[in-house]
Amino acid sequence: MDFKTKNSNWSHFEGYESPQEESSDNEDFLWSDSPQRKSLSDSNNNIIQEPRRSSSTLSAKDNNSSNPSNNNNMPASFRAGLDGRASSMEIIRSHNANIMPNKLIMIRHGQSEGNVDETLYSTKPDNNMRLTKLGWDTAQMAGKALREELGQGESVHFIVSPYVRTVETFHGIVSAWVDPEEFSHLKDKNERLKGWYTRLMEMGLSWHEDPRIREQDFGNYQDPDTIRKCKSERHKFGSFYYRFPHGESASDVFDRVSTFLDSLWRSFETQKSQNYVLVTHGISIRVFLARYFRYSIDQFNLLANPKNCEMVVLKHDNSGRLQLDSRCEMEFETVVAEEETTATNSKEKKKTVTAVVGYAKHRRLKLLPEHLRAQPRSVNMFYDDARS
Fold it and tell me: Which residue in 162, 172, 115, 166 sits closest to 138, CA to CA?
């Protein structure tokens, strides 16, 4: 048996069909086989389509025909309890619909020094890793993509991981609103920053840091050989539960992102903005999706880590819920940067670099290659079940 949740948004996953029939009740944790995989050609379709609503987001009108409270044969007290529960849910959904931003967008940081050279982690703290030149270019391209994604003139509130690479990614993104080089005539760096930030706020942007969406902790200074060994063990042990020595597991990140999600909802009410953007890390994006959409652990283990500056877009469905809308992946190509000659060799050498040239939208989340996926759980229904 494939141990998967019945109503846990299989339509979000690249290559999977939605179940043909979805239950109309509000139970989110029924067990059943996973839906059939789609063909590979269809799974790579980039056409953006509105995702089908899950059973948990159907309106009261949708569920009216199958609502047990309509059964006149039920005891009055039981019928009143069901009516009261439905009324409470309507109040909650109405409140959420009033405070919910139009879109919530999560963006992974741009390419960092550690992405290029993992040996740096042994001498430089993870939180101090800066963006590379390509990382800055990608962050600026992500800013252009973000502005196109949002409505003209709409307000945006950013929540940023306090790591250097995520703050620098935030700076690269918001340069799409105001170029910081406009303030290069100011000699004092603090004055330049103050002038730039002031202009951004005048354009409807606001922001704050939150350490709960930081990177997964892998320990302090990291020995490359030890980390490679741990990552190999993690694949066998299970990526969600494996805890790095002196560090965290994905389940630890899940716990702190859960508390962040609770306060995020309060922030929607106290820090009103038409759109919210989280500038964070790949693991934080995956556990946020798993927590909010109630993915099973097996589903979490299927997800590929978002690429540098990849965006995942959630859209308000006008009934108090966010739904997966799309993901936006940066596109790169190798280009000739310059030609070099040396004193000992008159032949010209062509130097190539990777450049970001655009971005493409996809309607589903990318999955790990088959050989990198953890084995799904096998759960018995009774003691001797394995023998039958």
Answer: 172
